[in-house]
Design brief:
There is one protein chain. With about 625 residues, this protein is α+β, with helices and mostly antiparallel strands. Helix content is about 20%, strand content about 20%. The chain has ten helices and 24 strands. The strands form seven sheets. Strands 16, 17, 18, 19, 20, 21 and 24 form a seven-stranded antiparallel β-sheet that branches. Helix 3 packs antiparallel against helix 7, helix 5 crosses helix 6 and helix 5 crosses helix 7. The longest helix has 25 residues.
Length: about 625
């Protein structure tokens, strides 16, 4: 029983919930699948982000089986399936699929910013076709390609939802039919990149969420086929136009598989989201604009074309004898030039020298300018009046009847005041010296006492009691056990086992096919007259050896058989029936046998005590063995 509501989060879990004692849920995220609740989560064992999808609806079981097959496919352009299973939540069960987090932007988001150019569409679809070709070689097809199932992350194309999306949609296809369906959808993706219209099968399906943005269908010609790209997009790539048109129409010469489509599109360039944007949002080809220090010919307000421009800086030129009038006039000229946005006006004519303190102050001189004459600012009276003595000069004026010698007119400069504060250099040097002394003392201590026992840092050391009741505490010098890191079970090899009585059809050399990661190959037994091996033996099976000891919680068998009985024992090949029975049950196309508790070991035996039925005959065909 599934408790996943269509298109919504799972009510039995929430932020902070931990699924199967491993995946801590953080927050919900979006999905275009109607029967899925998706969460961002963290793998608390490996400390990495993951994507948790809870499945619901009538096709949840089929989606789990499809996801298990997709987990056997490995390619950097495919979103990896990390874990698949069912767990209890409240009074029901939850079907879940754990995948890598989805990164980058979907084709829907990219095309919403602008149509993709032909070369980028060719590169994106080519990368997706090459990835799906790897999956097709494993017997897995996507069957639910759409713009939201293809993402661009930097220079990498990622295809999401392999196996899972088609399982929730209830779509099934294998062999040449599945490959042809993926090829047509890939051609429709190229058509969508260039036109923003969908030329594939209709996306108005109930397995897609109702709030998902669906692209408009492609326009069709009189024959009912989509209008060719060359009729819509000017100067389109002829190769891309031909391949897409023939593949969508299933015409001769069109691609019938992702591999054929990838070969037809080769070669393609590097994928770049920036390059796929339209030209009007591309960065300028000339790079960063540079400042222009020369006005172009015919610029307004410039008498001589092409002359260098002296831009106003707001500074006032200094002079050794600039009076108050010169200061005011210069400031007025600069302010007027800055406000008008043009070259500053020429300065006023120098005023006549006026007597001051028994002498004369020279008028400021200005360089000639080539600009046209403008209105002259009026001279201020302060430029011709004698400056009154300051209060500090009053005694001199009273005692001597004249002001003291004045410094030269102009701007008086001041030294920049020193910034007061704490000098951090002595503090930093002191801290460095203290650190060096402490490190030297620690090094000397370890040198002269290299074998001193370290005190135990485990405050929760257990106390054991013997038969007499005396307690024994761990000695202070006993080191605390280091925390163990979980090891994933990795199968090294598999070998057929059984009694010496064998029929002529036994195939022990085919045992490695059950652990080669390819579900299209299988190990099979001899065909017997009865499901009890015709009275020749008590059982037959495979011994699975791991690369190193690892905890195992369940065993999944992919078979072509039904019925019979199989046992999972923790033992070795020479003693197949001596170990304890960890799990047992009838054989099905997907047989998942869970243990009561994790079992750590290096050898497990899959022991068949009763033969299942395969095409109406008493034999076993075992495609793949997976340990969790």
């Amino acid at each position: 029983m599934s408790i996943v509501p269509p298109g919504g989060p799972v009510p039995a879990v929430g932020p902070g919930s931990v699924v199967v004692d491993r995946y801590r849920l953080e927050q919900t995220t979006t999905s275009d699948l109607a029967e899925a609740g998706v969460w961002q989560a963290t793998d608390v064992i490996l400390d990495r982000p993951v994507r948790v999808t809870f499945l619901g609806g009538p096709h949840a079981a089929g989606a789990l089986d499809a996801a298990r097959r997709a987990a056997l496919v490995s390619d950097p352009r495919l979103a990896r399936v990390l874990d698949v299973g069912t767990t209890r939540a409240g009074e029901g069960t939850l079907d879940y699929v754990i995948t890598e987090p989805y990164s980058g932007s979907t084709l829907t988001e990219i095309v919403s910013s602008g149509l993709v150019d032909a070369q980028q569409a060719r590169a994106i679809v080519g990368e997706a076709a090459a990835a799906l070709d790897v999956a097709a070689q494993r017997g897995v097809h996507h069957l639910a390609l759409r713009p939201d199932a293809v993402r661009v992350d930097g220079h990498r194309v990622v295809v999401t939802g392999l196996g899972l999306d088609a399982g929730l949609a209830g779509v099934d296809g294998a062999g040449a039919d599945g490959a042809a369906s993926d090829a047509r959808d890939l051609a429709a993706l190229a058509y969508y990149c260039l036109t923003a219209r969908w030329a594939g099968d209709s996306l108005d399906e109930p397995w897609l969420a109702s709030g998902v943005v669906r692209p408009l269908p492609a326009q069709v010609d009189v024959t009912g086929a989509p209008v060719s790209l060359s009729a819509i997009v000017p100067h389109v790539d002829p190769t891309l136009d031909t391949v897409v048109g023939r593949t969508l129409a299933s015409a001769p010469g069109g691609a019938t598989s992702p591999a054929a489509l990838a070969d037809a599109l080769k070669p393609w360039g590097e994928v770049s989201v920036v390059a796929s944007l339209p030209e009007f949002v591309q960065p300028p080809a000339g790079g960063v604009p540079t400042r222009q220090s020369v006005y172009p010919a015919g610029a307004p307000g410039v008498a001589t074309p092409g002359v260098p421009v002296r831009r106003p800086t707001g500074r006032i030129a200094r002079s050794s004898a600039v009076g108050v009038g010169g200061m005011a006039a210069t400031a007025a000229g600069v302010a007027g030039a800055g406000m008008a946005g043009a070259t500053p006006p020429p300065p006023p004519p120098p005023p006549p020298a006026q007597p001051y303190g028994g002498g004369y102050a020279a008028a400021p001189s200005y360089p000639p300018t080539g600009a046209q004459p403008t209105a002259q600012p009026t001279a201020y009276p302060a430029a011709t009046a004698q400056m009154p003595p300051t209060p500090a000069q009053q005694p001199y004026a009273q005692d001597y009847g004249q002001p003291p010698e004045q410094p030269p007119a102009g701007f008086a400069t001041e030294s920049v005041p020193r910034r007061r504060g704490v000098n951090p250099t002595p503090i930093v040097l002191g801290l460095v010296i203290v650190a060096v002394v402490l490190m030297a003392g620690w090094a000397l201590s370890n040198t002269f006492h290299p074998f001193s026992p370290a005190a135990s840092s485990n405050p929760s050391a257990t106390v054991s009691a013997d038969k007499g009741g005396a307690s024994h505490k761990p000695s202070p010098g006993t080191p605390s056990p280091s925390p163990t890191v979980e090891v994933r079970p990795v199968i090294a090899q598999a070998a057929q086992i059984g009694p010496a009585q064998q029929c002529a059809g036994e195939q022990p050399e085919a045992a490695p096919l059950a652990v080669d990661g390819d579900p299209s190959t299988f190990w099979f037994s001899c065909t017997y007259r009865s499901d009890t091996f015709g009275g020749l033996k008590q059982g037959i099976g495979l011994a699975v050896t791991l690369r190193e000891a690892a905890p195992v919680t369940s065993v999944t068998l992919l078979t072509n058989s039904t019925g019979g009985n199989v046992e999972i024992r923790k033992t070795t090949a020479d003693k197949p029936t001596d170990g304890p029975i960890l799990a047992q049950g009838p054989i099905a196309p997907t047989t998942e046998l869970k243990f009561a508790q994790p079992e750590v070991g290096t050898s497990f035996v899959i022991w068949i005590t009763q033969l299942p039925q395969t095409n109406g005959q008493n034999r076993i065909e075992l495609n793949e063995i997976t340990l969790q």
